[in-house]
Design brief:
The structure holds two protein chains of two kinds. Chain A starts with 7 loop residues before the first strand and ends in a 23-residue tail after the last helix. Chain A has two helices and three strands. In chain A, strand 1 (8-15) and strand 2 (23-30) form a beta hairpin. Helices cover 18% and strands 23% of the residues of chain A. Chain A has a three-stranded antiparallel β-sheet with strand order 2-1-3, covered by helices on one side. By secondary structure, chain A is an alpha+beta fold. Chain B is 66% helix and 2% strand. Chain B has a two-stranded antiparallel ribbon. The chains are: A alpha+beta, B mainly alpha.
């Protein structure tokens, strides 16, 4: 006999318009992928919020954790040359 | 500035002080977590139980227009409950645990839903006053310090103004109808006014948890401040449609730029919180029955999902 529970958590991503990226909007509980998609539609696009939905089982998402903030994201600090503003343009240069 | 040598508590204090959001995986004091679990699950339960007084009128709505609107509103409330349970779950309790706490009476929901909806005008009063009071509270909570709660509030507030406007439309419509219809509207206002302004909770001085909640920026404004905002907004709306707020002490105070109003019946309030309101037992019984009757559906859906992914 299968379990009596509220199903699994599925994270929901909605594309608002053609050409835009899918954006995370929240999650739903559902049993299986079809129900996840259906529930996501019922919950997150009742008012023309989007034209495409992705649902992903939460357990399949790999996330960074706050304790890693230092080691994981710091290398950006000493690589200012990755920013366009690092470079000095000759006076009078246009369209660059 | 945040840095690697800060302890969890220091980082937490730093974020609260600088209005940065706390996120699920961040360190947080146990009492902060418990306070949020209680407040957010209570909020979620209120949305779910709040479907009952309105569900009562779906099959008796006076027109097809009224019926589809009410259906949409009740569906929104189910959605709001889901947003809030999802946000509450990030604190480490499962949805099944929250539901168990609701059904066993360990967790509360807003007492306003323990009053019956006796006439169609009550659908107007609930939308206008109950949702109106909820909006004032929820607008303030958009700035709460816990990220998932704040994001849920932003989404809910976007949808909630339709609820209040549809309620006020019903009241306005009935207030300019026949004498009998106007009397129904006034009667609904009479019954829902005091419970609505008590939705904001006890006076600040009698609300033991307000201190911590304000310090941690879970709440951004106190019960009394929010109540005053709601009253100041609503009085003019009642006057405009020719209804009278049932409070003989209600009077504009020029100096404060706000309305003075009469004292609420707190003995009655606590009595309803403790389970002795007109509909407490009926609301929980209905939730338990629906949950139990749905058991085979959940099992079947799980079995289907196991086969088909």
């Amino acid at each position: 006999m299968s379990e009596d529970n509220q199903g699994q958590v599925w994270e929901v991503f909605v594309q608002a318009k053609p050409g835009l990226a899918h954006k995370h909007v929240g999650n739903v509980q559902a049993m299986g992928r079809e129900m996840a998609l259906q529930n996501a539609r019922d919950m997150y696009v009742r008012r023309k919020e989007g034209i495409s939905i992705w649902v992903v089982k939460f357990e399949n998402i790999v996330a960074s954790s706050p304790e890693e903030i230092g080691a994981f994201f710091d290398p950006m600090d000493d690589k200012a040359y990755r920013q366009a503003t690092y470079y000095k343009m000759p006076e009078g240069a246009k369209h660059i | 500035m945040e840095n690697a040598t800060m302890t969890g508590q220091e980082l937490f204090d730093h974020k609260i002080e600088n209005d940065l959001k706390i996120e699920p995986k961040d360190w947080m004091p146990d009492d902060y977590r418990k306070h949020l679990q209680r407040q957010m699950s209570q909020h979620a339960h209120s949305e779910i139980i709040g479907m009952q007084p309105e569900g009562n009128w779906i099959l008796r709505a006076p027109s097809l227009r009224a019926k589809v609107i009410l259906l949409a509103k009740v569906q929104d409330e189910a959605g709001h409950g889901q947003y809030l349970y999802s946000a509450a779950e990030t604190l480490g309790k499962t949805r099944d645990e929250f539901i168990e706490e609701l059904q066993s009476g360990k967790a509360k929901y807003s007492s306003i839903f323990n009053y019956p909806t006796l006439s169609w005008a009550d659908m107007g009063a609930v939308g206008w006053l109950v949702d109106g009071a909820a909006i004032v509270n929820q607008v303030s909570l958009q700035r709460t310090s816990y990220g998932p709660y704040s994001r849920a509030m932003v989404k809910i507030c976007k949808e909630e103004s339709f609820h209040q406007r549809q309620g006020y439309e019903i009241m306005a419509h009935m207030a300019r109808g026949t004498e009998e219809q106007k009397a129904m509207a006034q009667d609904a206002l009479n019954r829902f006014w005091w419970p609505s302004i008590m939705m904001f909770g006890p006076h600040d001085g009698d609300s033991p948890r307000t201190g911590n909640a304000m310090m941690w920026k879970i709440k951004r404004e106190t019960n009394d401040d929010l109540r005053q905002q709601f009253i100041d907004k609503t009085v003019g709306q009642a006057e405009l449609i020719g209804l009278t707020i049932p409070d003989p002490d209600l009077k504009w105070n020029e100096e404060r730029g706000s309305y003075d109003f009469g004292e609420m019946d707190w003995d009655h309030f606590w009595d309803v919180v403790k389970g002795n309101g007109p509909c407490n037992k009926q609301r929980i019984k209905h939730h338990i029955d629906a949950h139990e009757n749905g058991s085979w559906v959940r099992k079947a859906a799980n079995a289907y999902a196991e086969k088909n992914g």
